Amino acid sequence: MKLKELVNVKRGLVARAEEQGEIRYLRLADFNEEGQLQPGNERFLGDQPEEKYLLKAGDILMSILGPRYFALEFAEEEGKFIPNHFFNILNLKTDRFTSREIVEYLNSQPVQEELDSMTEGESIRTVPTKSLKDLRVKM
Fold this sequence. Notes:
Layout (H helix, E strand, L loop, with lengths): L6 E5 L5 E2 L4 E4 L17 E2 L14 E4 L7 E3 L7 E3 L3 E6 L6 H8 L2 H10 L10 H5 L6
Parallel strand pairs: 3-7
Antiparallel strand pairs: 1-8, 2-4, 3-4, 5-6, 5-8
């Protein structure tokens, strides 16, 4: 089966980051090597963005900028966040698997290597959203 059969996939928002605001604008620089959100140097969205980009509990945040791919499950109590365009937002559309199981699968070494082989671009290597949707899931 393909990933798009298990989750909806949408690209993060392209926006201008501000130093203050109500909604935190997530960038790759906000995460450490293990994919954990780090405090400091936060950026925010000044305008009121579309609700469809707002992360909700159970959403999966997937970085698509190589060579640092990682997936993490979002917990609602963390606050209001919208990821930038170097992330995809994945939400489950089936109950066959949990968000945590999908995250573990996406973070596995074989999948990481497959993602690396899908990248496009010369100076900025990213995994195209279509390629991520078509990723074969063997769980």
